[in-house]
Amino acid sequence: MSSLLYFHCGRELECDFQSYIEESEKVKTVSNDLQWFDWERYSTRQKQKMTLGDVPGQVKYEGNLESFMQILKLGEYIHVGKGTSFGLGRYEILKDM
User: Fold this and answer.
1) Half-sphere exposure of 49 toward its Cβ, with a 13 Å CA cutoff?
2) First and final CA of the chain: distance in angstroms?
């Protein structure tokens, strides 16, 4: 998010990261079945195989997530991390399943 804002809008992200960190410490993980998954693709530009990683699965959190919802919802659209152009970093927020 901060990189997109910087490179496409020429602005720095003004955010109180410390308060997000402090709020996040109050959120608890209830269940987590994430597992690392490696996969390969061939890069025609680099003419070699590339190993990419993904973390499929679900995580359930408990606590007040309201202060994070704007950022989390944005992440559903822009995805997060490296490899987003390959569909990596995609996630979906599910309400009480």
Assistant:
1) 4
2) 28
Q: Where residue 10 falls among pLDDT bands split at 50, 70, 90?
A: very high
Which pTM was predicted?
0.73
Q: Using CB atoms within 10 A of its CB, is residue 25 exposed (0-12), middle (13-18) or buried (19+)?
A: exposed
Residue extents of the structural domains in the chain: 27-86
β partners of residue 41? 50
Contact 78, 47 (CB under 8 A): no
Q: What is the pLDDT of residue 4?
A: 86
Residue 18: which residues within 8 A CB-CB, separation 6 or more?
none
Q: Phi/psi at 64 (nearest 5 deg)?
A: -85, 105
Q: Which amino acid is at 25?
A: E
